[in-house]
Amino acid sequence: MIKTPPQGMSYQYLINKPETTNDLRLKSEFISQRLKKIDDFSAGISDWVYTPGIEVVDGMLTMASGIKVHVNVALFKGIKNARGIEVTVGADGDPKYTRLAFGNNLGNFVYSSPGASASAFYRTIAGKLDTNIDVAFGHPDATTGDKIKAVLHGQNIQYFYNGSLLGTMVVSASKMYVLPRHNSIMAGVAFRAPTDAPNIDSVVIYPNRPYKYMHFSIDDSINIFKDLKEQENLYTSIFNNSTFAFFKSMHDKYGAKFSLYLFYSDGTWDLGSMTTKFASEFRENADWLKLGFHAYDGTSDYGNGTILTADALSHYNLVVNAIRTFASGYNIDTVIRPGYFGGSLDICRAWRDAECSVRGFLTADDDRESQLYLDATQRYSLSKCDDYLDTAENLYFVKTDLRIENFADPVAEFESRKVNVDYAGQMDILEVFTHEGRLRSATDPAKIKIENVCKWAIQNGYIFAFPMDYIPEC
Questions:
Q1: What local confidence, expressed as pLDDT, does residue 155 receive?
Q2: Coil, helix or strand for 131?
Q3: Pair 330, 279: CB distance under 8 Å
Q4: Is 145 left (phi over 0), alpha (psi -120 to 50) or beta?
Q5: Which backbone phi and psi does 367 adopt, to 5 degrees?
Q6: Nearest-angstrom CA–CA distance, 406 and 98
Q7: CA neighbor of 148 nearest in space, from 195, 104, 203, 200
Q8: Taking the domain 49-207, which CATH number applies?
Q9: Can you list the alpha helix ranges (DSSP code H) found in 173-239?
Q10: Which of the four CATH numbers 3.20.20.370, 3.30.1360.170, 3.90.79.10, 3.20.20.210 does domain 213-469 have?
Q11: Burial (CB count within 10 angstroms: exposed 0-12, middle 13-18, buried 19+), residue 379
């Protein structure tokens, strides 16, 4: 139950399942406002170097054998949905006993235990060491200056060593975490060391995005723009087009946000011929309507080696420059989904380094091996986690969750995933997509499905957002 509505709003909509679309929209707006608020944390006090907000507690942990050991636990004080923790091994530290932890209090947490050449994961329940979660990632012997990082995704954890993704710890039905889903999660580090050790490690805690969000994306978009051009003398608004009108109705009712990923050419017409009549209207709606690059045309695959890097960059610039001309720069989406999910490392770098820089990509909704330049470890991680930040390349990846046309009832599918351990790391960002061709008729089932998904998202506490606006720090 939401207790305090935004100023000027009534309590009419403060119910668990709103009855009207207006109530749903108001609730969506309030959720968005509420989740953007982060408490003001005071500076930590210790001899170690910590991010402001760290509280150091000297506790005792009972090992499985019954032996009690010192555990100096540094926990971020109550920040909701902490995303990551990174430790730099100090001169007096022993990397074998530097535990990166996520928990909801000092007695209940899950942590990694970096060994000399591998890292294992454990969980602690009620102050007692419980089971090994049976996963380990090999790495070189950790020494002074090495960086060890863990990033939490629901119940799953991505594990990094000196910036490289070593692997992803995935929960199973028999070994679920003690972490509560969507609750106040603290991140910290536990040092199994004397309490007066002066230079154990330095720690950085990364807060997460404002909780959960959903984003809609539409691939293969070109015909709706061609229609605007062909009807420019008749249309007074882009919303005279039935597909754009549908998008606006979903935004007006529920606050939904859409990204359209564009072809430059359909073989007979291209975006270079698009009318500029509606440029100001596109700009006015840029807060919920984005346009981005998809491909030159329906045959363009940037991952199979048939397109040179220079040509891929040229294709990207053609689309982006066209959007600037017939819409505005404010409408450009910089987290894109290339055709066939293709893009070699060189091509992705070229798009990243373009004048209108690509900041990230939406990956596949299936387990295909060819996804941009991602290797097997990265692809597996994205099959179990909402997202992944490649800090080496400064590129961000978001997993596509659901293709509308593949499910008779997308709402039932999301309901099942809420309690399915296979999706324990994939329910904080929901990326939903379809294709332009699925939205052409007023009675297309995809439109009904999208509206039902909008209602479900709000009733389950999601806001609507663009991935480009919530790129994390880790």
A1: 79
A2: strand
A3: no
A4: left
A5: -105, 30
A6: 45
A7: 203
A8: 2.60.120.560
A9: 223-230
A10: 3.20.20.370
A11: buried
Would you say the CATH fold of 213-469 matches that of 49-207? no
Tokens of 210: 């404002």
Q: Find the helix or strand (DSSP H, E) in which 448 lies.
A: helix 445-459
Q: What digits encode the pLDDT tens for the residues 280-337?
A: 999 999 999 999 999 999 999 999 999 999 999 999 999 999 999 999 999 999 999 9
For strands 429-435 and 213-221, give the pairing.
parallel
Neighbour count for residue 65 (Cβ, 10 Å)? 7
Helical H segments across 163-308, by residue range: 223-230, 242-254, 279-284
DSSP state of 355: S
Count the residues in the chain.
474
Domain ranges of the chain: 49-207, 213-469
Q: What are phi and psi of 140, to 5 degrees?
A: -60, 160
User: Which structure tokens are listed for 336?
Assistant: 């894109």
Helix, strand, coil content of the chain in percent (nearest 5): 30, 30, 40
What are the Cα distances from residue 294, in Å, to 224, 252, 315? 15, 26, 9
Q: What is the pTM of this model?
A: 0.84
Q: How many CB atoms lie within 10 A of CB 172?
A: 13
Ranges of H-type helices in 37-92:
none
Nearest alpha carbon to residue 337 among 294, 289, 397, 366:
294
Question: Among 54, 391, 83, 43, which residue's Cα sits nearest to residue 200?
Answer: 54
Mean pLDDT of the chain: 79
Q: Which two tokens stand for residue 260?
A: 């359209």
Confidence at residue 109, expressed as pLDDT on a 0 to 100 scale: 64
